[in-house]
Design a protein that fits this description.
Blueprint: E1 22-24, H1 25-28, E2 34-36, E3 41-43, H2 49-71, H3 77-102, E4 142-147, E5 150-157, E6 162-163, E7 169-171, E8 176-178, E9 183-185, E10 190-192, H4 197-224, H5 229-235, H6 237-266, H7 270-275, H8 289-297, E11 311-313, H9 314-332, H10 339-347, H11 353-356, H12 360-368, H13 397-414
Antiparallel strand pairs: 1-11, 2-3, 4-5, 5-6, 7-8, 9-10
The structure holds zinc ion (ZN) (2 copies).
């Protein structure tokens, strides 16, 4: 899959040496990911659901295999062994694809510790910002980027402090921007993005095949036995349970397989499909079914843009987290200086420019006097999970709303 290159943001400061104050990036990472094996395996925050998925897939599949193993002497020599091996192989593949999807960095975009250079401060303001009343900061909320001859708007992510690459979106569950964001899968406990979509697709399709496989051979087990079917059913409750379980499950996994096959053939993500369904915009990434399949399944794997094991300056990440907390606290304390400010001041750490030049008074007023009686929320000053409220399912409308409201609040808060 082609990941668009974006060079207008600088990655977090890197260093190759290892002084004692340094930490590995995964140890200070501000996303909600969980890491194993020293940052080599990257999971989502709800990684525990992988265990549930393992039980839901592996439980019935292994029950089927054990059942076949017990019956193998009654069956034709070749038939029994082939069916048994097929069951084991499909179970192994489905679970392997599940773990490969869950433990892989989905394509997280490296965060910035500071806003990119595009953020021009129009006039230099004193550090005594609390006494200043006139805002002097201009932030372009979106940028136009040309993709395959189409103009695509990319938005600025207030949490990651960067312009999202085209097709990237901020996952509110993981609190990261993810390249070619598809959705956050609660069954895998991980974002599905540019780097794990293939294995996710393989996981869904092999699960569907496994479901049909267990259903078919469990039904044959009942039909092949001599005697009336109803008596066989009452004698073999395991096969009946497997048939019912697979019949219900196949609608779910089979539906997902069909849906993602359609997405692959049209080169859409789940997010784009829901987001732009009613916009009737032309999909700039659709290059014909053959090229789309080639791009998604046969292009070079996208290399990760983050090395979670690299050594970083812990202080860089600390400053930003404090300043974000400060910005939230500040509004809550009605413009009074918070303790956090003192901490930063004593350490001699400057506020990031973005905070020095914000008109906090304006922010407060915009929160107090919402237009149309509704609180206008500017994502710039709220905790990151207020940013893009995309979760799997149906909550796309919040971003739609924020697109319209962000311009209002940006001009109210950040403009002149
Ligand atoms: Zn982001
Ligand atoms: Zn996620």
């Amino acid at each position: 899959m082609g990941g668009q290159k974006f060079s207008d943001f600088a990655p977090p400061s890197k260093c190759t040496d290892r002084p004692s104050a340094k930490k590995r990036l995964y140890q200070v990472w501000r996303g909600r990911n969980k890491f194993l094996c020293g940052g080599r395996l990257v999971f989502g925050p709800d990684a525990g659901s992988v265990l549930l998925s393992t039980v839901l897939i592996g439980g019935p599949a292994l029950t089927f295999c054990i059942k076949m193993l017990l019956r193998i002497s009654e069956l034709d020599f070749l038939y029994g062994r082939i069916v048994l091996a097929g069951g084991f192989i499909l179970t192994f593949l489905a679970l392997s694809f599940l773990y490969m999807t869950a433990a892989r960095n989905p394509g997280i975009v490296p965060r910035n510790n500071r806003p990119p250079v595009d953020f021009e401060v129009e006039s230099v303001r004193s550090l005594d910002w609390a006494s200043c009343g006139t805002p002097s900061f201009k932030i372009p909320r979106t940028k136009d980027v040309i993709v395959n001859g189409h103009t695509v708007k990319v938005k600025f992510c207030d949490t990651c402090l960067l312009y999202r690459p085209p097709r990237a979106s901020h996952c509110s569950v993981c609190n990261n921007c993810v390249q070619r964001f598809d959705h956050h899968c609660p069954w895998v406990g991980q974002c599905i993005g540019v780097r794990n979509y293939r294995t996710f697709f393989c996981f869904v399709t092999t699960s569907t095949v496994l479901c049909i496989y267990v259903f078919t051979f469990s039904l044959l087990n009942l039909l092949e036995k001599p005697g009336p079917l109803w008596r066989n059913m009452s004698d073999d409750t395991v096969s009946v349970s497997l048939i019912v379980y697979c019949f219900i499950s196949v609608w779910f996994v089979g539906g997902l397989s069909v849906f993602h096959s359609y997405l692959v053939s049209t080169n859409q993500t789940t997010y784009e499909n829901f987001r732009y369904r009613y916009d009737r915009k032309e999909n700039p990434y659709n290059r014909g079914i053959g090229q789309n399949i080639k791009e998604i399944f046969f292009s070079k794997p996208v290399v990760t843009r983050i090395n979670f094991r690299e050594w970083v300056n812990e202080a860089d990440f600390h400053v930003q987290s404090i300043s974000r907390k400060f910005s939230a606290d500040f509004i809550g304390t009605n413009g009074k200086l918070d303790l956090e400010l003192g901490v930063i001041g004593k350490d001699g750490k400057p506020f990031p420019g973005i905070l020095q030049n914000l008109d906090y008074k304006g922010i407060e007023e915009s929160l107090k006097k919402p237009k149309g009686g509704k609180v206008i929320v500017d994502p710039f000053v709220l905790p990151s999970d207020q940013d893009d409220k995309y979760t799997t399912g149906d909550s796309f409308t919040d971003e739609d709303r924020s697109e319209f409201s962000s311009e209002r609040t940006s001009s109210a808060v950040l403009g002149r």
